[in-house]
Amino acid sequence: MDRVLRRVPLRQIRQIACVIPILVIGLFVFQHWPVIADGGHQLLGANPYWLLVAVTVTGLGWVAVSFTRQGTVLEPLPAGRLLATQFAAGAANHLLPSGLGAGAVNLRFLKRCGVPLGRSSAALALYLLAESVGRIFLLAVLLLAFPDALRLDGLIPAGAVLPLAVTAGVVACAAVLVVAAVRPLRRIIRTFLTTALTDVRSLHTRPARAFALWGGSLAFPALQAAALVTVALALEMPVPVVHVAIAYLAASVAAAVIPTPGGLGSVDAALVVTLVTTGASVTLATSAVLGFRIITVWLPLVPGALVLGALVRWKVV
Fold first, then answer.
1. What is the per-residue pLDDT across 51-102, written as a single tens digit (0 to 9) for each?
2. SS3 per-residue string spanning the chain
3. CA-CA distance, 75 to 202, in Å (whole number)?
4. Which terminus of the chain is more exposed, N or C, with fewer CB under 10 A?
5. CA–CA separation, 128 vs 126, rounded Å?
6. What's the pLDDT tens digit per position in 26-44?
7. What is the mean pLDDT of the segment spanning 241-260?
8. Is the pTM of this model over 0.85?
9. Which residues have a Cβ under 8 Å from the Cβ of 271 and sit 6 or more positions away?
10. Is the pLDDT of residue 18 over 70?
C-alpha cells in the first residue's frame, strides 16, 4: 500500500482532495433533499424582503467568526483568506459532529499561516470556549430582562432532572479518573494547558485581539438569533422577536450536549420545542426552523464546498 501511495504524484493527490468535499456535500444534499424541498415550499409564501435580510445577517456571521478566529492568535492573519476559510469551514462543519469539520479546516489554515501546532490547537480550544461563553452570556442577559419569555418547565420533564445530573456527574468523574491514571495523557494535557494559558494572557494584553475575540464571540450568536428572528418575521409568526432570539440561544445551548454534524437534528428539534414554549404553533415553528436551516445551512453548502476545494488546491488549507 505504501508503495502505491508513493507512486501517486502529489499533484494528483491534491486534485483528488479538491473534489472530495464537493462529492461529499453533493451526497449530503441528495440525502436531505426532501427536507430542503419541504422547507422551500413553506417559504414560498413568506415575505421576501425579510428573507433577504436573513441572508445578509447570515453573511455577517462569517465576518464575526473571522474576528473571533483572529482574536485567538497573536499573529496577524490575512483577512481575505481568513474570511474565505470560515465560509469553507461552515460547509465542512456540517459533515462532522461537534465542530470537528471547521476545526480541521482552521487547524490546517493556521498551520499554513505559520502558527505552530500546539498554539493552533490552543487557539481552536479558546475559540470554542469564547463562543460558548458568549452564547450563554447573551442567553442569561435576555432571560434576566425577559424572565417570562421561555417556559423552562416544558423543556425538561421533572423526572429527567435527576438522571441527567447523575449522568453528568458520572461522566465528569470518569474523565478525571482516566486523566489521573494515564501519565502520558496527563503530560499532554499539562503541556496543552500551559501553552493555552500563556497565549490567553498574551492576547489579553493586546486590546485589539481581546476585542476581536470577545466581540466576535458575542456577535456571532446574536447574528444567528437575528437570522431566525427575520425568518419568523417573514412568516408573520405571532411571537415577540426577543422571545424568538431567546428560543434560538436556549436551543443551541441545550443541543450542544448532543454532538451532531452542524447541529442538524439536535438543534432543529430543540428549536421547534423552544419556539413552541414561547407561544408559536407547531406548524409555524417547524416552518421557521426549516427556513432558518435553508438560509444558514443549505444555501451556503455547495458554494462553501467549492470554496473549500479551491482553498485546498491553492494550498491555503
1. 999 999 999 999 999 999 999 999 999 999 999 999 999 888 876 655 678 8
2. CHHHHHHCCHHHHHHHHHHHHHHHHHHHHHHCHHHHHHHHHHHCCCCHHHHHHHHHHHHHHHHHHHHHHHCCCCCCCCHHHHHHHHHHHHHHCCCCECCHHHHHHHHHHHHHCCCCHHHHHHHHHHHHHHHHHHHHHHHHHHHHHCCCCCCHHHCCCHHHHHHHHHHHHHHHHHHHHHHHHCHHHHHHHHHHHHHHHHHHHHHCCCHHHHHHHHHHHHHHHHHHHHHHHHHHHHCCCCCCHHHHHHHHHHHHHHHCCCCCECCCCHHHHHHHHHHHHCCCCHHHHHHHHHHHHHHHHHHHHHHHHHHHHHHHHCCCC
3. 11
4. N
5. 5
6. 665 576 567 556 666 767 7
7. 81
8. no
9. 228, 247, 248, 251, 285, 288, 289, 292
10. no
CB neighbours of residue 270 within 10 Å: 23
Q: Residue 196 half-sphere exposure, CB side, CA atoms within 13 Å?
A: 15
pLDDT at 271: 84
What is the band of 123 on the pLDDT scale with cuts at 50, 70, 90?
very high
